[in-house]
Amino acid sequence: MSTCFYDFHTHNPTPTPGIVKMLCVDPGVALNDVDGIFYSSGIHPWRAGENFDMSVLQKMLPHLSAIGEIGLDRLCGVPLQHQLETFSKHLIWQKPLIIHNVRCTSEILQRLPEPMLALWHRAPVKRSSLSRIIERGSMVSFSLEGLRFLNPALVPLSQLGLETDDSSVPIQEIYEAAAKLWQVSLEDLRCQLEQNFMRFYTLSG
Known about the structure:
The chain is of the alpha/beta class and 205 residues long. It has one domain: Metal-dependent hydrolases (TIM Barrel, Alpha-Beta Barrel), CATH 3.20.20.140. The chain is built from seven helices and eight strands. The protein has helices at 54-60, 80-89, 105-111, 127-135, 144-147, 171-182, 186-200; strands at 5-10, 19-25, 37-41, 66-73, 97-102, 118-120, 139-142, 160-162. An eight-stranded parallel beta sheet has the order 1-2-3-4-5-6-7-8, sandwiched between helices. The termini are close together.
């Protein structure tokens, strides 16, 4: 039986025994076949003002399990119109999306096609925003920091992901904190998130 922990979104490219990760890389980066690592890529909203050739990303598609992180960020300084244009360009591909969202929940929800597989990384913990995302059937993913402010009753385990993002906190530590928060055993949580990871990213077991 597998005893892996699943990291739904990370920027750490180092292979780690016992950890399966969705590694976010920049468009155009060469992708290597590495055990335990799957790839996502997209134009981050912070870079939406740059002149970017989308064909670079399109060539990567056969090797990607997801598109992202992409989205909208009201605080990053890039004009929101530029971000909206860049975000929309990613929605033509039939791949799960990893969403970056800073104070733009409504704008993103308005533009996401239905049905569309979407994982909101570092998802908002405010009840009004989080409930709308959950009601749309999206996945939500949290780092250790996000778990500290989260009401677990708002998130069904079937829609939960956990992530390291750009932190150095081990994914196992995040799982331990989540197991206590949802009041389930660590193994039950690990099994549920394994199912979530494989289902969301449409990977074969």
